[in-house]
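Please fill in the sequence for the structure shown.

STRUCTURE ENCODING:
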């Protein structure tokens, strides 16, 4: 299987998680490609058997690049198994509560 992992990040944590997911996919004998959709606005590549989209969350909102990517690629994402992961380093809107 070929899995495409597209992500949007600001601080880089989402990149690390996407890379880890790719390692796990590869360890199970599949192909995994990652792409930072904040820099490369490429569509879902042809021939993918599944897509995972990831986004950082800031003040309760997903990265605008990820939201735009999902909207623009909705048909492709609905045509194959797909998943979404969110990365937040703070509690929704209240940074003083982060880590509790």
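FILLED IN BY: designer on duty
SEQUENCE:
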């Amino acid at each position: 299987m070929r899995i495409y992992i597209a992500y949007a990040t600001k601080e880089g944590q989402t990149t690390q998680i996407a890379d880890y997911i790719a390692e796990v996919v590869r360890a199970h004998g599949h192909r995994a490609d990652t792409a930072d959709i904040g820099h490369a606005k490429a569509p879902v590549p042809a021939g993918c058997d599944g897509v995972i989209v990831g986004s950082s969350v800031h003040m309760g909102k997903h990265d605008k690049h990820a939201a735009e990517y999902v909207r623009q690629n909705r048909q492709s994402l609905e045509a194959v198994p797909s998943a979404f992961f969110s990365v937040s380093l703070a509690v929704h809107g209240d940074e003083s509560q982060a880590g509790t």
